[in-house]
Amino acid sequence: MPRYSRDISSSGNKRRIVIAAVSAVVVVGLAVGVFFGVQAYQESQERQQHEEEVQNVVEDETFYDGIIVQGVDLGGMTMAQARQALEPVEESLRGTYSVTVARGEQSWVITEADLDFTYNTEEVLQEAYQYGREGTDEERYTTVQALKEQPKEWEITVTMDDTGIGTKMQEIADSIDTDPVNATVASFDASTETFQFNEGVPGVKTDVEALTQLVQSALEDSGTGVVEVPVEEVPYEVSAADLQGVMKKLGTYSTVSTNTADGNHNMKLAMESINGVVVGPGETFSYNDATGDTTTSANGYRLATAFSNGRRVQEYGGGICQVSTTLYGAVLRSNMQIIERSNHMMPVGYCPLGQDATVSYGSLDFKFKNPTDYPVYIVGDMTGTRLTVTLYGYQSPSYDTIEVSSWQTGTLSQPEDTYEVNNSLAKNEIKLIMQGRNGQTAAAERTFYKDGKAVKTESLPSSRYRALATIYEVGPGTDTSQIVNGSIPGSTPSTPESSAPESSAPESSAPESSTPESSTPESSAPESSTPESSAPESSSSESPASSQGDPGVIITPPSVTEDEGDGTGETSPSQPPASEIPVG
Protein backbone atom coordinates (compact mmCIF):
# COMPACT_ATOMS: atom_id res chain seq x y z
CA MET A 1 0.00 0.00 0.00
CA PRO A 2 2.61 2.54 0.84
CA ARG A 3 4.62 1.42 -2.25
CA TYR A 4 1.70 2.12 -4.48
CA SER A 5 1.41 5.56 -3.07
CA ARG A 6 5.01 6.39 -3.97
CA ASP A 7 4.48 5.42 -7.61
CA ILE A 8 1.54 7.70 -7.95
CA SER A 9 3.43 10.63 -6.49
CA SER A 10 6.48 10.04 -8.74
CA SER A 11 4.35 9.94 -11.86
CA GLY A 12 2.74 13.28 -11.02
CA ASN A 13 6.05 14.94 -10.60
CA LYS A 14 7.24 13.78 -13.97
CA ARG A 15 4.13 15.07 -15.56
CA ARG A 16 4.61 18.45 -14.01
CA ILE A 17 8.15 18.53 -15.22
CA VAL A 18 7.11 17.73 -18.77
CA ILE A 19 4.41 20.36 -18.69
CA ALA A 20 6.82 22.88 -17.36
CA ALA A 21 9.35 22.01 -20.03
CA VAL A 22 6.79 22.23 -22.75
CA SER A 23 5.60 25.53 -21.42
CA ALA A 24 9.11 26.79 -21.29
CA VAL A 25 9.67 25.75 -24.87
CA VAL A 26 6.47 27.43 -25.91
CA VAL A 27 7.39 30.58 -24.06
CA VAL A 28 10.84 30.56 -25.55
CA GLY A 29 9.38 29.96 -28.99
CA LEU A 30 6.97 32.75 -28.51
CA ALA A 31 9.72 35.01 -27.26
CA VAL A 32 11.93 34.13 -30.17
CA GLY A 33 9.07 34.69 -32.55
CA VAL A 34 8.30 38.01 -31.00
CA PHE A 35 11.96 38.96 -31.09
CA PHE A 36 12.38 38.13 -34.71
CA GLY A 37 9.08 39.72 -35.56
CA VAL A 38 10.03 42.92 -33.84
CA GLN A 39 13.47 42.81 -35.43
CA ALA A 40 11.97 42.31 -38.86
CA TYR A 41 9.62 45.20 -38.28
CA GLN A 42 12.38 47.43 -37.12
CA GLU A 43 14.47 46.48 -40.10
CA SER A 44 11.53 47.22 -42.39
CA GLN A 45 11.03 50.59 -40.79
CA GLU A 46 14.70 51.38 -40.99
CA ARG A 47 14.81 50.28 -44.60
CA GLN A 48 11.82 52.44 -45.43
CA GLN A 49 13.34 55.40 -43.61
CA HIS A 50 16.64 54.93 -45.42
CA GLU A 51 14.90 54.75 -48.74
CA GLU A 52 13.08 57.95 -47.92
CA GLU A 53 16.34 59.60 -46.93
CA VAL A 54 17.98 58.46 -50.14
CA GLN A 55 15.02 59.73 -52.12
CA ASN A 56 15.22 63.08 -50.35
CA VAL A 57 18.87 63.37 -51.24
CA VAL A 58 18.20 62.49 -54.86
CA GLU A 59 15.33 64.94 -55.17
CA ASP A 60 17.01 67.83 -53.30
CA GLU A 61 17.61 70.72 -55.75
CA THR A 62 19.50 72.92 -53.29
CA PHE A 63 23.15 72.76 -52.37
CA TYR A 64 23.89 69.90 -49.94
CA ASP A 65 24.92 70.65 -46.38
CA GLY A 66 28.69 70.78 -46.16
CA ILE A 67 29.16 72.45 -49.55
CA ILE A 68 31.34 75.48 -48.80
CA VAL A 69 32.48 78.06 -51.39
CA GLN A 70 35.02 80.69 -50.33
CA GLY A 71 34.05 80.15 -46.69
CA VAL A 72 30.31 80.42 -47.26
CA ASP A 73 28.23 77.28 -46.42
CA LEU A 74 25.75 77.01 -49.25
CA GLY A 75 23.77 74.15 -47.71
CA GLY A 76 20.07 74.49 -48.44
CA MET A 77 20.54 77.39 -50.87
CA THR A 78 19.23 77.53 -54.40
CA MET A 79 21.61 78.54 -57.19
CA ALA A 80 20.22 82.09 -57.21
CA GLN A 81 20.58 82.39 -53.44
CA ALA A 82 24.13 81.12 -53.64
CA ARG A 83 25.06 83.69 -56.28
CA GLN A 84 23.63 86.47 -54.16
CA ALA A 85 25.47 85.22 -51.06
CA LEU A 86 28.79 85.28 -52.90
CA GLU A 87 28.54 88.81 -54.35
CA PRO A 88 30.06 90.52 -51.29
CA VAL A 89 32.76 87.87 -51.30
CA GLU A 90 33.70 88.72 -54.88
CA GLU A 91 34.21 92.38 -54.00
CA SER A 92 36.45 91.44 -51.09
CA LEU A 93 38.57 89.27 -53.36
CA ARG A 94 39.53 92.24 -55.58
CA GLY A 95 41.72 93.73 -52.93
CA THR A 96 42.77 97.38 -52.89
CA TYR A 97 44.99 99.13 -55.43
CA SER A 98 46.50 102.59 -55.67
CA VAL A 99 48.84 103.22 -58.59
CA THR A 100 49.54 106.84 -59.57
CA VAL A 101 50.05 107.72 -63.24
CA ALA A 102 51.98 110.99 -63.51
CA ARG A 103 52.79 113.46 -66.29
CA GLY A 104 54.27 116.74 -65.10
CA GLU A 105 51.77 118.40 -62.80
CA GLN A 106 49.01 116.08 -63.96
CA SER A 107 48.31 112.82 -62.16
CA TRP A 108 45.71 110.08 -62.12
CA VAL A 109 45.24 107.49 -59.35
CA ILE A 110 44.22 104.02 -60.49
CA THR A 111 42.19 102.14 -57.86
CA GLU A 112 40.20 98.93 -57.90
CA ALA A 113 37.17 101.00 -58.91
CA ASP A 114 38.90 101.82 -62.21
CA LEU A 115 39.74 98.21 -63.00
CA ASP A 116 37.75 95.37 -64.46
CA PHE A 117 37.88 91.95 -62.78
CA THR A 118 36.58 88.55 -63.80
CA TYR A 119 35.62 85.78 -61.35
CA ASN A 120 35.15 82.05 -61.92
CA THR A 121 32.26 82.07 -59.45
CA GLU A 122 29.79 80.56 -61.88
CA GLU A 123 32.14 77.73 -62.77
CA VAL A 124 32.78 77.00 -59.09
CA LEU A 125 29.06 77.07 -58.26
CA GLN A 126 28.25 74.60 -61.01
CA GLU A 127 30.99 72.25 -59.84
CA ALA A 128 29.92 72.51 -56.19
CA TYR A 129 26.29 71.96 -57.07
CA GLN A 130 27.10 68.78 -58.98
CA TYR A 131 28.99 67.30 -56.03
CA GLY A 132 27.02 64.27 -54.77
CA ARG A 133 24.84 64.15 -57.86
CA GLU A 134 26.69 61.46 -59.79
CA GLY A 135 26.51 57.63 -59.50
CA THR A 136 23.70 55.46 -58.14
CA ASP A 137 21.22 56.78 -55.65
CA GLU A 138 22.97 54.88 -52.86
CA GLU A 139 26.36 56.23 -53.90
CA ARG A 140 25.02 59.73 -53.97
CA TYR A 141 23.49 59.25 -50.51
CA THR A 142 26.76 57.99 -49.11
CA THR A 143 28.66 60.96 -50.59
CA VAL A 144 26.18 63.47 -49.19
CA GLN A 145 26.20 61.84 -45.74
CA ALA A 146 29.98 62.04 -45.68
CA LEU A 147 29.76 65.82 -46.13
CA LYS A 148 28.34 66.05 -42.61
CA GLU A 149 31.56 64.72 -41.19
CA GLN A 150 33.93 66.22 -43.75
CA PRO A 151 32.58 69.28 -45.64
CA LYS A 152 33.83 69.99 -49.17
CA GLU A 153 35.32 73.43 -49.89
CA TRP A 154 35.92 75.42 -53.10
CA GLU A 155 37.71 78.72 -53.74
CA ILE A 156 36.90 81.49 -56.23
CA THR A 157 39.66 82.79 -58.47
CA VAL A 158 39.76 86.51 -59.41
CA THR A 159 41.55 87.77 -62.54
CA MET A 160 42.34 91.39 -63.48
CA ASP A 161 41.09 92.23 -66.99
CA ASP A 162 43.87 93.70 -69.15
CA THR A 163 41.32 95.25 -71.51
CA GLY A 164 39.98 97.49 -68.78
CA ILE A 165 43.47 98.78 -67.97
CA GLY A 166 44.15 99.53 -71.64
CA THR A 167 40.89 101.46 -71.95
CA LYS A 168 41.69 103.55 -68.88
CA MET A 169 45.20 104.28 -70.16
CA GLN A 170 43.78 105.41 -73.51
CA GLU A 171 41.52 107.86 -71.67
CA ILE A 172 44.55 109.26 -69.87
CA ALA A 173 46.48 109.48 -73.14
CA ASP A 174 43.62 111.38 -74.77
CA SER A 175 43.85 114.02 -72.04
CA ILE A 176 47.62 114.31 -72.50
CA ASP A 177 48.10 114.07 -76.25
CA THR A 178 48.16 117.24 -78.34
CA ASP A 179 48.52 117.74 -82.06
CA PRO A 180 51.44 119.78 -83.30
CA VAL A 181 50.54 123.36 -84.18
CA ASN A 182 52.22 124.98 -87.15
CA ALA A 183 53.46 128.53 -86.95
CA THR A 184 50.70 131.08 -87.50
CA VAL A 185 50.36 134.72 -88.42
CA ALA A 186 49.99 136.70 -85.20
CA SER A 187 49.33 140.08 -86.77
CA PHE A 188 49.82 142.17 -89.88
CA ASP A 189 50.79 145.82 -90.05
CA ALA A 190 49.52 147.28 -93.32
CA SER A 191 51.48 150.50 -92.87
CA THR A 192 54.79 148.66 -92.82
CA GLU A 193 53.61 145.62 -94.77
CA THR A 194 55.08 143.33 -92.14
CA PHE A 195 53.81 140.20 -90.44
CA GLN A 196 54.34 139.00 -86.89
CA PHE A 197 54.35 135.23 -86.39
CA ASN A 198 53.63 132.76 -83.61
CA GLU A 199 56.18 129.96 -83.60
CA GLY A 200 54.91 126.42 -84.00
CA VAL A 201 54.28 124.19 -81.00
CA PRO A 202 55.33 120.51 -80.97
CA GLY A 203 52.68 117.94 -80.25
CA VAL A 204 52.75 115.18 -77.62
CA LYS A 205 51.95 111.50 -78.23
CA THR A 206 51.56 108.94 -75.43
CA ASP A 207 52.89 105.40 -75.87
CA VAL A 208 49.68 103.75 -74.67
CA GLU A 209 50.97 100.20 -75.01
CA ALA A 210 54.07 100.89 -72.89
CA LEU A 211 52.01 102.81 -70.31
CA THR A 212 49.55 99.93 -70.01
CA GLN A 213 52.34 97.43 -69.40
CA LEU A 214 53.95 99.63 -66.74
CA VAL A 215 50.68 100.12 -64.86
CA GLN A 216 49.75 96.46 -65.12
CA SER A 217 53.10 95.42 -63.66
CA ALA A 218 52.69 97.84 -60.74
CA LEU A 219 49.20 96.52 -60.03
CA GLU A 220 50.30 92.90 -60.13
CA ASP A 221 53.50 93.39 -58.12
CA SER A 222 52.39 95.44 -55.14
CA GLY A 223 49.22 97.21 -56.16
CA THR A 224 50.85 100.56 -55.44
CA GLY A 225 53.49 102.86 -56.91
CA VAL A 226 54.01 105.76 -59.32
CA VAL A 227 54.26 105.34 -63.09
CA GLU A 228 55.58 108.14 -65.32
CA VAL A 229 53.72 108.47 -68.62
CA PRO A 230 56.01 107.60 -71.56
CA VAL A 231 55.51 110.22 -74.30
CA GLU A 232 57.23 111.32 -77.48
CA GLU A 233 57.31 114.74 -79.12
CA VAL A 234 55.58 115.23 -82.46
CA PRO A 235 57.30 117.96 -84.50
CA TYR A 236 55.31 120.67 -86.30
CA GLU A 237 55.70 121.04 -90.05
CA VAL A 238 55.75 124.81 -90.63
CA SER A 239 57.99 127.14 -88.63
CA ALA A 240 57.83 130.92 -88.29
CA ALA A 241 60.83 131.13 -90.60
CA ASP A 242 58.95 129.08 -93.19
CA LEU A 243 55.98 131.44 -93.01
CA GLN A 244 58.14 134.52 -93.19
CA GLY A 245 59.44 133.32 -96.52
CA VAL A 246 56.03 132.86 -98.15
CA MET A 247 53.73 135.45 -96.56
CA LYS A 248 53.94 138.61 -98.64
CA LYS A 249 52.07 141.16 -100.70
CA LEU A 250 50.01 139.42 -103.36
CA GLY A 251 47.91 141.39 -105.84
CA THR A 252 47.12 145.10 -105.69
CA TYR A 253 44.76 147.15 -107.84
CA SER A 254 43.65 150.80 -108.03
CA THR A 255 40.86 152.78 -109.68
CA VAL A 256 39.95 156.50 -109.67
CA SER A 257 36.46 157.76 -108.86
CA THR A 258 34.66 160.42 -110.91
CA ASN A 259 31.51 160.07 -108.78
CA THR A 260 29.72 162.68 -106.68
CA ALA A 261 30.63 163.55 -103.10
CA ASP A 262 27.87 161.28 -101.79
CA GLY A 263 28.93 158.51 -104.14
CA ASN A 264 32.50 158.87 -102.87
CA HIS A 265 31.18 158.75 -99.31
CA ASN A 266 29.49 155.43 -100.09
CA MET A 267 32.70 154.12 -101.66
CA LYS A 268 34.68 155.04 -98.57
CA LEU A 269 32.17 153.27 -96.32
CA ALA A 270 32.30 150.14 -98.46
CA MET A 271 36.11 150.29 -98.55
CA GLU A 272 36.25 150.55 -94.76
CA SER A 273 33.99 147.51 -94.45
CA ILE A 274 36.42 145.28 -96.36
CA ASN A 275 39.62 146.79 -94.97
CA GLY A 276 41.23 144.48 -92.43
CA VAL A 277 39.09 141.47 -93.27
CA VAL A 278 40.94 138.18 -92.83
CA VAL A 279 39.86 135.34 -95.11
CA GLY A 280 40.88 132.07 -93.48
CA PRO A 281 42.23 129.03 -95.31
CA GLY A 282 39.51 127.56 -97.50
CA GLU A 283 37.02 130.28 -96.53
CA THR A 284 34.83 132.22 -98.96
CA PHE A 285 34.59 136.01 -98.77
CA SER A 286 31.25 137.69 -99.55
CA TYR A 287 31.24 141.38 -100.47
CA ASN A 288 27.61 141.80 -99.46
CA ASP A 289 28.25 140.16 -96.10
CA ALA A 290 31.13 142.57 -95.49
CA THR A 291 29.23 145.75 -96.38
CA GLY A 292 25.88 144.77 -94.94
CA ASP A 293 22.64 146.18 -96.33
CA THR A 294 23.49 149.12 -98.59
CA THR A 295 19.91 149.85 -99.64
CA THR A 296 19.04 151.99 -96.60
CA SER A 297 20.66 154.68 -94.51
CA ALA A 298 20.86 152.34 -91.51
CA ASN A 299 24.51 151.50 -92.21
CA GLY A 300 25.47 155.05 -93.09
CA TYR A 301 25.01 154.88 -96.86
CA ARG A 302 23.76 158.00 -98.61
CA LEU A 303 21.61 158.70 -101.63
CA ALA A 304 23.77 158.96 -104.72
CA THR A 305 23.19 159.03 -108.44
CA ALA A 306 21.92 155.84 -110.03
CA PHE A 307 19.85 154.94 -113.08
CA SER A 308 16.30 153.63 -112.96
CA ASN A 309 14.26 153.12 -116.10
CA GLY A 310 16.94 154.93 -118.00
CA ARG A 311 16.80 158.02 -115.82
CA ARG A 312 19.12 159.43 -113.20
CA VAL A 313 17.70 158.81 -109.73
CA GLN A 314 19.00 158.99 -106.19
CA GLU A 315 19.44 155.63 -104.46
CA TYR A 316 21.21 154.55 -101.30
CA GLY A 317 24.62 153.01 -101.82
CA GLY A 318 25.29 154.48 -105.25
CA GLY A 319 28.96 154.00 -106.15
CA ILE A 320 29.82 150.88 -104.12
CA CYS A 321 30.34 148.80 -107.26
CA GLN A 322 33.60 150.64 -107.87
CA VAL A 323 34.88 149.17 -104.60
CA SER A 324 33.82 145.64 -105.57
CA THR A 325 35.48 146.13 -108.97
CA THR A 326 38.71 147.34 -107.35
CA LEU A 327 38.63 144.34 -105.03
CA TYR A 328 38.01 142.05 -108.01
CA GLY A 329 41.11 143.41 -109.70
CA ALA A 330 43.25 142.68 -106.64
CA VAL A 331 41.71 139.24 -106.18
CA LEU A 332 42.44 138.25 -109.79
CA ARG A 333 46.08 139.21 -109.34
CA SER A 334 46.30 137.29 -106.06
CA ASN A 335 45.23 133.97 -107.59
CA MET A 336 42.11 133.69 -105.48
CA GLN A 337 39.33 131.41 -106.70
CA ILE A 338 36.36 133.33 -108.12
CA ILE A 339 33.10 131.95 -106.76
CA GLU A 340 30.58 134.58 -107.92
CA ARG A 341 31.01 137.62 -110.16
CA SER A 342 28.70 139.61 -112.44
CA ASN A 343 29.60 142.31 -114.93
CA HIS A 344 27.73 145.64 -115.10
CA MET A 345 24.91 146.32 -117.50
CA MET A 346 27.25 148.58 -119.47
CA PRO A 347 31.03 149.00 -119.48
CA VAL A 348 32.34 151.30 -116.76
CA GLY A 349 34.98 153.94 -117.17
CA TYR A 350 37.18 153.07 -114.19
CA CYS A 351 38.47 149.69 -115.38
CA PRO A 352 39.12 147.86 -118.66
CA LEU A 353 36.30 146.10 -120.46
CA GLY A 354 35.57 142.69 -118.90
CA GLN A 355 37.33 143.39 -115.59
CA ASP A 356 34.47 144.88 -113.55
CA ALA A 357 32.36 143.28 -110.81
CA THR A 358 28.93 144.63 -109.93
CA VAL A 359 26.90 143.91 -106.80
CA SER A 360 23.28 144.21 -105.75
CA TYR A 361 22.54 143.55 -102.11
CA GLY A 362 20.12 140.67 -101.85
CA SER A 363 20.61 139.43 -105.41
CA LEU A 364 24.09 139.90 -106.89
CA ASP A 365 27.22 139.33 -104.85
CA PHE A 366 30.95 139.17 -105.44
CA LYS A 367 32.54 136.17 -103.76
CA PHE A 368 35.96 134.61 -103.82
CA LYS A 369 37.59 131.72 -101.99
CA ASN A 370 41.00 131.57 -100.37
CA PRO A 371 42.38 128.32 -101.79
CA THR A 372 45.57 128.32 -99.71
CA ASP A 373 46.39 126.87 -96.32
CA TYR A 374 47.11 130.31 -94.88
CA PRO A 375 45.05 133.40 -94.08
CA VAL A 376 44.64 136.19 -96.61
CA TYR A 377 44.49 139.81 -95.42
CA ILE A 378 42.53 142.48 -97.30
CA VAL A 379 43.82 146.04 -97.09
CA GLY A 380 41.51 148.62 -98.65
CA ASP A 381 42.04 152.36 -98.80
CA MET A 382 40.43 155.38 -100.44
CA THR A 383 42.57 158.49 -100.43
CA GLY A 384 40.88 161.38 -102.17
CA THR A 385 39.32 159.82 -105.25
CA ARG A 386 41.82 156.98 -105.56
CA LEU A 387 40.70 153.51 -104.46
CA THR A 388 43.30 150.80 -103.79
CA VAL A 389 42.90 147.23 -102.61
CA THR A 390 45.83 144.95 -101.79
CA LEU A 391 45.82 141.33 -100.67
CA TYR A 392 48.51 139.83 -98.45
CA GLY A 393 49.01 136.12 -97.88
CA TYR A 394 50.77 133.01 -99.08
CA GLN A 395 52.46 133.16 -102.48
CA SER A 396 53.45 129.95 -104.20
CA PRO A 397 57.08 129.81 -105.33
CA SER A 398 55.95 128.40 -108.68
CA TYR A 399 55.50 131.90 -110.14
CA ASP A 400 56.34 135.53 -109.50
CA THR A 401 53.52 137.65 -110.94
CA ILE A 402 50.09 137.49 -112.54
CA GLU A 403 48.95 139.72 -115.37
CA VAL A 404 45.30 140.14 -116.33
CA SER A 405 44.16 140.98 -119.85
CA SER A 406 40.74 141.35 -121.45
CA TRP A 407 39.34 142.16 -124.89
CA GLN A 408 36.10 142.63 -126.78
CA THR A 409 34.88 139.52 -128.52
CA GLY A 410 31.70 140.75 -130.19
CA THR A 411 29.11 143.49 -130.72
CA LEU A 412 25.40 143.35 -129.90
CA SER A 413 23.19 145.48 -132.14
CA GLN A 414 21.42 148.45 -130.59
CA PRO A 415 17.63 147.94 -130.30
CA GLU A 416 15.15 150.28 -131.96
CA ASP A 417 14.49 153.65 -130.33
CA THR A 418 11.91 153.80 -127.54
CA TYR A 419 9.34 156.64 -127.14
CA GLU A 420 7.45 157.59 -124.01
CA VAL A 421 4.62 160.14 -123.83
CA ASN A 422 5.26 163.10 -121.53
CA ASN A 423 2.15 165.22 -121.05
CA SER A 424 4.24 168.22 -120.12
CA LEU A 425 5.66 168.35 -123.66
CA ALA A 426 3.94 169.88 -126.68
CA LYS A 427 2.97 167.89 -129.71
CA ASN A 428 6.01 167.03 -131.86
CA GLU A 429 8.29 168.10 -129.03
CA ILE A 430 10.91 165.42 -128.48
CA LYS A 431 13.22 165.06 -125.50
CA LEU A 432 16.26 162.76 -125.44
CA ILE A 433 16.29 160.83 -122.18
CA MET A 434 19.02 158.27 -122.77
CA GLN A 435 21.30 157.69 -125.70
CA GLY A 436 21.28 154.07 -126.76
CA ARG A 437 24.33 152.04 -127.65
CA ASN A 438 25.51 148.75 -129.04
CA GLY A 439 26.20 145.96 -126.59
CA GLN A 440 29.50 144.15 -126.24
CA THR A 441 30.86 140.79 -125.22
CA ALA A 442 34.28 140.43 -123.70
CA ALA A 443 36.71 137.74 -122.58
CA ALA A 444 39.48 137.85 -119.99
CA GLU A 445 42.37 135.74 -118.80
CA ARG A 446 45.24 135.83 -116.35
CA THR A 447 48.78 134.72 -117.10
CA PHE A 448 51.28 133.51 -114.53
CA TYR A 449 54.95 134.44 -114.95
CA LYS A 450 58.08 132.95 -113.45
CA ASP A 451 61.42 134.66 -114.06
CA GLY A 452 59.80 136.67 -116.83
CA LYS A 453 58.38 133.64 -118.66
CA ALA A 454 54.71 132.69 -118.91
CA VAL A 455 54.15 129.38 -117.14
CA LYS A 456 50.36 129.16 -117.16
CA THR A 457 47.26 130.93 -118.49
CA GLU A 458 43.76 130.70 -117.06
CA SER A 459 40.48 131.84 -118.56
CA LEU A 460 38.43 134.21 -116.42
CA PRO A 461 34.67 134.86 -116.39
CA SER A 462 33.44 136.35 -119.65
CA SER A 463 31.23 139.45 -119.82
CA ARG A 464 28.16 140.48 -121.76
CA TYR A 465 27.19 144.16 -121.77
CA ARG A 466 23.63 144.83 -122.84
CA ALA A 467 22.72 146.71 -125.99
CA LEU A 468 20.40 149.60 -125.06
CA ALA A 469 17.78 151.44 -127.06
CA THR A 470 17.77 155.22 -127.23
CA ILE A 471 14.92 156.57 -125.09
CA TYR A 472 12.91 159.68 -126.02
CA GLU A 473 10.00 161.45 -124.39
CA VAL A 474 7.45 162.98 -126.77
CA GLY A 475 4.47 165.26 -126.41
CA PRO A 476 0.95 163.87 -126.73
CA GLY A 477 -0.18 163.34 -130.33
CA THR A 478 3.35 163.13 -131.73
CA ASP A 479 3.62 160.75 -134.69
CA THR A 480 6.73 158.76 -133.67
CA SER A 481 6.91 157.11 -137.11
CA GLN A 482 8.01 160.48 -138.50
CA ILE A 483 10.92 160.82 -136.11
CA VAL A 484 14.35 160.53 -137.71
CA ASN A 485 17.47 160.71 -135.52
CA GLY A 486 15.51 162.24 -132.68
CA SER A 487 13.57 164.86 -134.61
CA ILE A 488 10.75 165.30 -137.10
CA PRO A 489 12.01 166.93 -140.28
CA GLY A 490 10.77 170.54 -140.44
CA SER A 491 9.60 170.59 -136.80
CA THR A 492 11.03 171.95 -133.58
CA PRO A 493 14.37 170.27 -132.81
CA SER A 494 14.50 167.69 -130.02
CA THR A 495 15.51 168.66 -126.54
CA PRO A 496 18.48 166.64 -125.26
CA GLU A 497 18.34 165.33 -121.69
CA SER A 498 21.42 166.04 -119.64
CA SER A 499 21.45 162.51 -118.29
CA ALA A 500 22.45 160.85 -121.52
CA PRO A 501 24.81 157.95 -120.79
CA GLU A 502 28.50 158.53 -121.06
CA SER A 503 30.61 156.23 -123.11
CA SER A 504 33.09 154.55 -120.84
CA ALA A 505 34.80 151.71 -122.63
CA PRO A 506 36.58 151.35 -125.95
CA GLU A 507 34.84 149.50 -128.70
CA SER A 508 38.07 148.10 -130.04
CA SER A 509 38.33 144.33 -130.07
CA ALA A 510 42.04 144.36 -129.40
CA PRO A 511 43.12 143.04 -125.99
CA GLU A 512 42.99 145.76 -123.36
CA SER A 513 45.65 146.53 -120.83
CA SER A 514 44.84 144.98 -117.46
CA THR A 515 45.93 147.96 -115.42
CA PRO A 516 43.80 151.08 -115.23
CA GLU A 517 45.50 154.30 -114.31
CA SER A 518 48.62 153.50 -112.33
CA SER A 519 47.15 150.30 -110.97
CA THR A 520 49.87 147.95 -112.05
CA PRO A 521 49.66 144.74 -110.03
CA GLU A 522 52.67 144.58 -107.75
CA SER A 523 52.65 140.89 -107.01
CA SER A 524 50.45 137.86 -107.28
CA ALA A 525 49.18 135.18 -105.05
CA PRO A 526 49.41 131.46 -104.47
CA GLU A 527 48.64 129.00 -107.13
CA SER A 528 47.51 126.45 -104.67
CA SER A 529 44.08 125.33 -105.74
CA THR A 530 43.17 127.06 -108.96
CA PRO A 531 43.42 124.52 -111.79
CA GLU A 532 44.99 125.47 -115.05
CA SER A 533 42.47 126.81 -117.55
CA SER A 534 39.86 126.47 -114.87
CA ALA A 535 37.59 129.22 -116.11
CA PRO A 536 35.84 128.43 -119.35
CA GLU A 537 33.69 131.33 -120.49
CA SER A 538 30.16 130.91 -119.30
CA SER A 539 27.27 132.27 -121.26
CA SER A 540 26.00 135.55 -119.95
CA SER A 541 22.49 136.41 -118.97
CA GLU A 542 21.34 139.86 -118.09
CA SER A 543 20.32 140.62 -114.54
CA PRO A 544 18.89 144.13 -114.33
CA ALA A 545 19.67 145.87 -111.09
CA SER A 546 20.04 149.43 -110.03
CA SER A 547 23.26 151.23 -110.64
CA GLN A 548 25.54 151.78 -107.71
CA GLY A 549 28.56 152.24 -109.89
CA ASP A 550 29.67 155.08 -112.11
CA PRO A 551 26.67 157.30 -113.03
CA GLY A 552 26.24 157.93 -116.71
CA VAL A 553 27.37 154.50 -117.79
CA ILE A 554 25.06 152.09 -115.98
CA ILE A 555 21.61 152.22 -117.49
CA THR A 556 18.39 150.26 -117.09
CA PRO A 557 15.90 149.82 -119.94
CA PRO A 558 12.45 151.34 -119.42
CA SER A 559 10.73 148.09 -118.58
CA VAL A 560 12.95 147.41 -115.60
CA THR A 561 13.31 149.15 -112.26
CA GLU A 562 16.87 148.80 -111.05
CA ASP A 563 17.25 147.52 -107.55
CA GLU A 564 20.71 148.10 -106.17
CA GLY A 565 23.48 146.78 -108.35
CA ASP A 566 24.58 147.85 -111.75
CA GLY A 567 24.84 144.77 -113.66
CA THR A 568 23.96 141.79 -115.49
CA GLY A 569 25.52 138.75 -115.07
CA GLU A 570 28.48 136.87 -115.89
CA THR A 571 29.14 134.44 -113.08
CA SER A 572 32.31 132.74 -111.96
CA PRO A 573 33.56 129.62 -113.72
CA SER A 574 32.30 127.52 -110.84
CA GLN A 575 28.77 128.92 -111.03
CA PRO A 576 26.03 128.48 -113.63
CA PRO A 577 25.28 131.50 -115.82
CA ALA A 578 23.18 134.01 -113.95
CA SER A 579 19.56 134.00 -114.98
CA GLU A 580 17.68 137.22 -115.53
CA ILE A 581 16.61 138.70 -112.22
CA PRO A 582 13.32 140.58 -112.53
CA VAL A 583 13.37 143.70 -110.39
CA GLY A 584 10.68 146.22 -109.48
Automatic annotation (TrEMBL):
Sequence ranges of Polar residues compositional bias: 478-490
Pfam family name, one: PG_binding_4
Cross-referenced PANTHER family: EXPORTED PROTEIN, EXPORTED PROTEIN-RELATED
Domain YoaR-like putative peptidoglycan binding residues, every copy: 108-222
Record keywords: Membrane, Transmembrane, Transmembrane helix
Keyword Transmembrane helix annotated: yes
Name by which UniProt lists this protein: VanW family protein
Chain spans, region Disordered: 476-584
InterPro entries associated with the record: Glycopeptide_resist_protein, Vancomycin_resist_VanW, YoaR-like_PG-bd
Compositionally biased tracts (Low complexity): 491-547
Transmembrane segments: 20-41
